[in-house]
C-alpha cells in the first residue's frame, strides 16, 4: 500500500492537540509506515501542498489568516478532520466572543501597554469579529472531540481511517475529555 499524505494544521489553539498527537510516542513510528507527513508545525514545509489525503486541523478560526488557511486546506484535502474542542465548537478561543473584539484589542494593546500603544497592522493577522468553529467555514468529514483528544484516540482513529476499518468515535472520546 502506498503511503497516504498527512497534514496537521494549527489554527487558533493552544497546541495541546498537537502535543497529544506526539504523545503517541513509539506508535508514531508505526504511523510513519502508513503516512508521509507533508505539512505540519512539526515539519519544515512552508506551503500547504496541492494534494493531501488526510488533514488534521487543531484550533478555531479567529483571524482573517485562519479563514484563508482553512479554505485552502479544504480545497486541497480529501479528508478534513477537526481535532479537539476548539476546532469543533470554538471552545477556549471563543471565550472572547461575549467580550467583543474591540474590548480585547483595547485590553491587550492599550490598557496593558507601557510604550507604543497601538494595534499591530503588519505581521499579526487581523482578528475576525468573532471566533468560530471550522465547520462554519468549510465541510468537515470527521470530528474528533476532546481537549485534547488522547494519544490513544489519535492512534485508534487514524489507524481506522487509514486502513478503512470502522470507527466508533463516541466510544473513544467526548467533548472535554
Ligand atoms: S481543544 Fe484543548 S488542547 Fe486542543 S487546542 Fe483547544 S484548548 Fe488546546
Structure commentary:
- The strands form two sheets. A five-stranded parallel sheet has the order 2-1-3-5-7, with helices on both faces. Strands 4-6 form a two-stranded antiparallel sheet.
- The chain is globular and about 55 Å long.
- By secondary structure, it is α/β, with parallel strands linked by helices.
- It is built from seven helices and seven strands.
- Helices cover 34% and strands 21% of the residues.
Could you give the count of β-strands? 7
Largest sheet entry: 5 strands, parallel
Radius of gyration: 17 Å
Number of helices: 7
Strand order of the largest sheet: 2-1-3-5-7
- Mean residue pLDDT: 96
* SSE order, one letter for each helix or strand: EHHEEEHEHHEEHH
Give unreliable regions as ranges.
none
Terminus-to-terminus distance: 33 Å
Task: Name the hetero compounds present.
Answer: iron/sulfur cluster
**Content of β-strand:** 15-25%
In short:
It comes from Telmatobacter sp. DSM 110680. The chain has 177 residues and is an alpha/beta fold.
